[in-house]
């Protein structure tokens, strides 16, 4: 059994720091190159729409497979077995919504943001404002979860223990330095490199992530002579849970003996989470804007197919990594390092490295996977930042404040500053939130996307009667219900473990919880849809001709935005 | 990648069809009018029908299939924990089947769209936009 912190030597740290440095240098090089390509608004928001299907497919993968996917799911499988796998399946199946219902139609009928499509036949100001508010809320929540995670991760990956210093940094300082460095890098990628820079950072990350995961998975399997069954048995045995490790119920929908109410709540929570995961992806603004970076809707379809292939393969590899960590690293060593299991994958890399090549190879493998994890964080936060800055500049500044009269140069300039602003706000929030348990924000971002964004996107494309009041009610209704329910849920207050330790966001003395589920989707998704329908019926506004144009554009691609780069 | 300094994108590069207003604006307005008219065209009805005929049943199917999986993970744990081969249980196979169906639907949809949807969509789009003035000015159909 090993533990990173206990055995981290300065050599290992040196390799890790050097790889981090190389990664930063490469991505900054990409940014400098990309900044020379970025002149028009189309260049900044959509990378000139010149990416191929395979390039965009990798970029989507790079955008989507966040640290929560990579480290979080591998860790969840390592600690809870089957339920981590269950979680990853929601993340994958969700892509069918994007493929069948959203990607192509959005590409054909919008320019830069999801709000372009929703507002097409509506009053611009209220709908653009609502779309921008929703985009910013989803992106900043998601961003916060990633950045707080990044701070903790940098400290962990450098293996700095409490009371110890490295390069003059204590573990606490290293956390803050991690957050600030990640924040500054994402601001730089986005404000200078725009969508072109962000996309290439995401492609590099996706290649690194797939390569790293494949390498470690193959090494794990080779230890077991490529017999997945014996890996599974070993994992189940080492977990201490036995066969239950291979069955649902260790983490989600937990059955509490003698407490029928809590058991029912836990099971409904699982269903609620499943709904948010499967319906949220196709409403995430940073995913939606990726469909605009390709020349046409057919390429958008191809890129989603590539993304499905990559993401699916990756989650299959994650299953091997999670079981491998459970079997080879062991639950105790993982929990000792991070109670959520976030370091299971790097710990596994070190373990298999040592198995095949002693301490040196172990150190190299650890540094390699740490660099992959770092790249994973950087590319996802860059995607979230550009989604926020594009929406602020295009939807809010240009359409709402300037009535659509801002010049391209002006819009791009505002977008660059918006990226700096969003980045600065995120850094400050993340530093303050660094000791809070904010992992729930990822699931919340999916729930908001599923409740506020997806219904209005689909209704605007397919429901003739849909109008301004419906869109505004749908967006705010979904947004407020999902955020509101979480505020009064056990994740924010009133949750304690068996020993009475506080597991909620707020201090133990405050308890405002009355909504029993941790995931609001089961209630907020139908509520968001209902608000959109009722809002529509309460207004007489109707634009049948604009609807006809929108649908013809969306389905045929006539008048769709062209690529400016080839 | 090389950069062409193309003009802002919202106007497709088309020959002017009327003399008075700036050509691009006229072409755009013209396209808008023709798009609105196209909505009533029986061929557009057919196009929409072809899209919905695949995506509606496929969406219902994958959603129901996924929901069944989640519901069984919550409420049918006895069934899910039944071992099939060695310690590999139904839960594992059901999960893996979700991957298979996801890949499968994506492949079927792409084949369907290539064969049944794209040709008609392209035909209507070309008609709406008018024939390209220069060969190759079209967006990358073959990409």
UniProtKB/TrEMBL annotation, chain A:
Name under which the protein is recorded: Cation acetate symporter
Membrane topology qualifier: Multi-pass membrane protein
Organism (species): Streptomyces triticirhizae
CDD domains recorded: SLC5sbd_u4 (cd11480)
Any one annotated GO CC term: plasma membrane
Transmembrane segments: 14-35, 56-79, 85-106, 127-156, 176-194, 206-224, 270-292, 304-329, 360-393, 414-433, 439-463, 470-492, 521-539
Family per similarity comment: Belongs to the sodium:solute symporter (SSF) (TC 2.A.21) family.
GO molecular function (one): acetate transmembrane transporter activity
Domain of life: Bacteria
Any Gene Ontology biological process: plasma membrane acetate transport
Main subcellular localisation: membrane
Compartments where found: Cell membrane
The entry's keywords: Cell membrane, Membrane, Symport, Transmembrane, Transmembrane helix, Transport
InterPro entries documented for this protein: Na/Glc_symporter_sf, Na/solute_symporter, Sodium:Solute_Symporter
TrEMBL record, chain B:
TM segment ranges: 51-76, 88-109
Keywords: Membrane, Transmembrane, Transmembrane helix
Top-level division of the source organism's lineage: Bacteria
Keyword Membrane appears in the UniProt entry: yes
Pfam families according to UniProt: DUF485 (PF04341)
Region (Disordered): 1-26
Name of the protein in its database record: DUF485 domain-containing protein
